[in-house]
Design goal:
The protein has about 200 residues and is of the alpha/beta class. The chain has 4 helices and 10 strands; from the N terminus they run H-E-E-E-H-E-E-E-E-H-E-E-H-E. The strands form 2 sheets. Strands 1, 2, 3, 4, 5, 6 and 8 form a 7-stranded mixed β-sheet that branches. Strands 7-9-10 form a 3-stranded parallel β-sheet. The longest helix has 25 residues.
Length: about 200
């Protein structure tokens, strides 16, 4: 590969912007994960026709930016990641992402696909085992200020289903007592109801 083609390959390397469970690097092995910020988006809990609990989605919002991680798509092939994010549409986001890497990248963000969204009047239910994983990731990467920013830039909260005793989220993680207390603290401060989970 000559120098011009090598430069083009570096410029076109595909990366994704993760803003939920993908911030927790215990849930994946994607390489070169780096803290980043996505401008013009907020997080929203979304109900779908795929399962009874909510998905976390990135939604356009000109007044908001969100923290997250970028990471390299394995083998420059989106297929496996698209399968993991099966409920989502992949959207271009290169120009909206600030990151520390020196080379320009091709960056995408996942947003729940319009055809998957359910029109329900009640708020979507959120798995606590999923939220635990997300907050563990944010605290690890961004500290408690990152957790506070997550709650401030995430909308449409519904009741949280307490499934910690028998986690329903397939990538659930063991949390420290400090992480568990932090999740509970923020839920209480936001007056977000936590209710028993009944599979």
């Amino acid at each position: 590969m000559d120098q011009r083609n090598a430069r083009h390959a570096r410029m076109s390397a595909p990366y994704f912007f993760g803003y939920g469970s993908l911030v927790n690097t215990k849930t994946h092995a994607y390489s070169n994960a780096q803290p980043a910020r996505l401008a013009g988006y907020k997080r929203v809990w979304v109900a779908t026709d795929l399962r009874p609990f909510a998905f976390l989605s990135a939604e356009p919002d000109a007044a908001t930016s969100i923290q997250g991680l970028i990471a390299h798509v394995p083998n420059d092939d989106w297929a496996a990641l698209d399968q993991r994010e099966f409920a989502y549409a992949r959207l271009p986001a290169t120009s909206a992402v600030t990151h520390p890497l020196p080379d320009p990248l091709s960056i995408a963000v996942y947003s729940v696909a319009p055809e998957r969204r359910a029109s329900r009047s009640e708020p979507p239910k959120i798995l606590l085992s999923y939220l635990d994983v997300v907050i563990q990731g944010y605290r690890s990467v961004f500290g408690e200020t990152g957790v506070a920013d997550f709650f401030a830039t995430t909308h449409k909260w519904g009741p949280v289903l307490n499934d910690r005793a028998s986690p329903a989220y397939p990538r659930h993680q063991r949390l420290s007592a400090q992480d568990t207390a932090l999740v509970d603290q923020f839920l209480a401060a936001q007056n977000i109801p936590v209710v028993p989970y009944a599979p």
